[in-house]
Amino acid sequence: MSVERAILDAWAGHRPLAALVPSERVFAGSVPPPPADGAPQTAPYLAIERLADAAQVRTSSRRDLSLEVLRMRIVAGSLEAALATAEVARVRFTGFGCALPVGAVQDMRVVSQEHGPADQGLWQATLDWRVRVSRDPPRS
């Protein structure tokens, strides 16, 4: 399981977030896939994108520790709805940690937040996160 998948699962399991953006409208990747009929994506939706693996070190126990940067792009029909969803997400995921199949998300912190117009008359709020991840050493 990836960090993005862990966030998607946590979003779906958090009622306040799922009420604002249902889990079927939460996507991993930079742009949500278009609907089957080719029409533009409708709001609300969330796209989670990995921006960078910032740094990596190995501990004496051979566990890798990395800093990753993820972006949550929340698109809504109004600026108020985008900002409200961003605030609930910020509260829910600040300090978030969870197990991964070969390690763990240790911590998440917002490093930047922006908002403004999106395509087709919609509004967006973006949260960039610094995510600390530990990965277990390969098994021999």
Folded structure, characterized:
- The structure is a single chain.
- By secondary structure, the chain is α+β, with helices and mostly antiparallel strands.
- It has a single domain, classed as Phage tail protein-like (STM4215-like).
- Helices cover 22% and strands 44% of the residues.
- It has helices at 3-12, 15-20, 79-93; strands spanning 26-28, 45-58, 64-76, 98-100, 103-117, 123-135.
- A six-stranded mixed beta sheet has the order 1-2-3-6-5-4, covered by helices on one side.
- Strand 2 and strand 3 form a beta hairpin.
- It is elongated.
Strand segment tally: 6
Query: Helix tally?
Result: 3
The first-level CATH class is given as: Alpha Beta
Strand line-up across the major sheet:
1-2-3-6-5-4
Q: By CATH's scheme, which homologous superfamily applies?
A: Phage tail protein-like
Number of domains: 1
Helix/strand order: HHEEEHEEE
Beta content comes to 35-45%
- The average pLDDT score comes to 89
Radius of gyration: 16 Å
Straight-line N-to-C gap: 21 Å
What level of helicity do the residues show?
10-25%
Structural class, from secondary structure content? alpha+beta
Largest sheet: 6 strands, mixed
Poorly predicted ranges? none
- Please name the CATH architecture: 2-Layer Sandwich
* CATH-defined fold name: STM4215-like
Shape: elongated
Helix and strand arrangement:
Elements: H1 3-12, H2 15-20, E1 26-28, E2 45-58, E3 64-76, H3 79-93, E4 98-100, E5 103-117, E6 123-135
Parallel strand pairs: 1-2
Antiparallel strand pairs: 2-3, 3-6, 4-5, 5-6
